[in-house]
Structures are given as structure tokens and as C-alpha cells.
Amino acid sequence: MIDATTHVRVARPSRDLAAAERFYVDALGLAVLWRSTERVPGKHDLLMVGPQGGSWHFELTHDPENPVDPTPTVDDLFVVYLGEPVAEALVDRLVAAGGTRVAAHNPYWDEYGVTVADPDGYQLVLCSRVWG
């Protein structure tokens, strides 16, 4: 049965795991939970990021032999509910780490937050509201 303690992994392809790490770890503040970049034939390079001790993480993958080009849509969102106004310093760090500030497809996210596309084009929404 799935409950609040069930661990969840969301996997996405990435063109450049180092760029993804700069964005999600150095700028956003997530931790590297696992990394595998040994260039083993037939195996993917992996970067898993998330909060230490959390019940979810991102698995960012890169297959050097058969790369998959990321194809994000305007509704492929990673929403972080901050519960406070979005600090411009955080947005500046994300942009400096390869992100691009963008207008949200859904105007709700512009009203209550800031949207930044990661280096692969997936959108991170920093929401000033709380969930629930």
C-alpha cells in the first residue's frame, strides 16, 4: 500500500548531469543521494538528488551510448511549496547555474511564485504558498 512513508522516485533524462547537479544541488540546495558515472558499457550514468532523509528523489539519467533528448512540455512541473515569498537570491542562483526564468503556462504559478526552466528545459516552480 502506498502511504506517506513510501519512497517515490521521479526519473528524467538529462543531456548533462554536471549541469543538472549545479542547478538542483548547488543552486536549489538538494543533496546528491547517489551518483554513478563509471561509463560502464550498457549502463546509464545516474545522478539521484533529493532531500537527505526525504521520501522522494529525482533520478537524472544519461545514456552515453544512446542518449535520450529531454522533451519537456510546459506542464512538466516540479513544484516546491516554500510557504514564504520567493527570494530573488534563490532565483539568481538558479539562473547563474544554467536555469532560465520563464513565464508559467498556467498564470496561477506566476501569481503565486516563480518558474525557472532547468538546463534541460524542465520547469521548476518555486511557490510562495503551502500545500494543503
Strand order of the largest sheet: 1-4-3-2
Write the element-wise H/E pattern from the N-terminal end onward. Answer: EHEEEEHEHEE
> What proportion of the residues form beta strands (DSSP E)?
25-35%
Structural class: alpha/beta
Largest sheet: 4 strands, mixed
Number of helices: 3
Helical coverage, percent range: 10-25%
Ends apart, CA distance between termini: 22 Å
Please tally the β strands and state the result. 8
Radius of gyration: 15 Å
Stretches with pLDDT under 50, minimum 5 residues: none
Shape category:
globular
Mean pLDDT, all residues: 93
Summary of the model, kept short:
It contains 3 helices and 8 strands; from the N terminus they run βαββββαβαββ. The protein is an alpha/beta fold and 132 residues long. It is globular, with a radius of gyration of 15 Å.
Any overview of this molecule?
The chain is of the alpha/beta class. Helices cover 19% and strands 33% of the residues. The chain contains three helices and eight strands. It has a four-stranded mixed sheet, covered by helices on one side. Strands 5-8-7-6 form a four-stranded mixed sheet. Helix 1 runs antiparallel to helix 2. The radius of gyration is 15 Å and the shape is globular. The two termini are 22 Å apart.
